[in-house]
Every structure is written in structure tokens, then in C-alpha cells.
Amino acid sequence: MTTEAQYTVRPANWLPLPGVTEVRHEAVLTQRVDENDNYSKATVEEFYPRQGRGVVALDDGTRIVFDVRSVTFVGEKAHASYLQQGARVGYDVGVTPNGLRLCALKVY
To answer: What range defines the domain where residue 78 resides?
Structure first.
């Protein structure tokens, strides 16, 4: 007497979260971030995620190199995974013996 097991292929992370009855993906994609804060604004000119390094271009044309390990991420998108080339960011700088370095980044 043989019985064949029935298996269903499911996508990764298919289990529902505890207490959540409905998953709303559009809420995650439409986050509102206020750009009218006190951070100075810049644009990510270059970003190399595997190396964890990048360059931001300030509005006046100055370029500042940053390392993800030495930057504190703030705001709703407080993680390096939100960084990409061309992203608008708020920044805070510090002075080191090697020149200006980013201390804080806020991704908009």
C-alpha cells in the first residue's frame, strides 16, 4: 500500500505574520518622507553596495566620500539597502584628518 504525498510549491516567506490578517504592499511602497527638515540636501552620485562605499554630490558641487560602516542612518529608511545612485539624501558632516566625512544620512 503506497500513498503519494502531495506537495505545494510556495514562494519564500509565505507564512503570514502573527496578528496580521491582510498584507498591504502598497503601504510599504508609498512611504511619505518629509524633505523639509534641517538636514542639508545632496544626491548620491556613486554607490557601491558590495564595498559599502559611495560618493554624495552636494548642491554646490562638492563631493564627499562615505563608508556605510561609519555613517549613522536616520529616518524611516534608516538602512543602507535604501541607498542607490541618484537617491536624494539629507546629510551631516564631520571633519577628519583626511577631510570631510559623512556622519549621518537620511534617505528620502
So the answer is: 39-107
- The mean pLDDT of 104-108, rounded to a whole number, is 92
- Number of neighbouring beta carbons within 10 Å of residue 4: 5
Contact 102, 62 (CB under 8 A): no
Burial 57-90 (b: 16+ CB within 10 A, else e): ebeeeeebebebeebebebebeebebbeeebebb
Looking at the whole model, is its pTM more than 0.85? no
- Does 61 have pLDDT greater than 70? yes
Name the burial class of residue 41, with classes exposed (0-12), middle (13-18) and buried (19+) by CB atoms within 10 angstroms of its CB: middle
Cα 79 → chain centroid = 4
Task: Say if residues 103 and 69 touch (Cβ distance below 8 Å).
Answer: no
As a whole number of angstroms, the distance between CA 108 and CA 43 comes to: 10
CATH number of the domain bearing residue 60: 2.40.50.140
Cell 556622519, residue located: 103
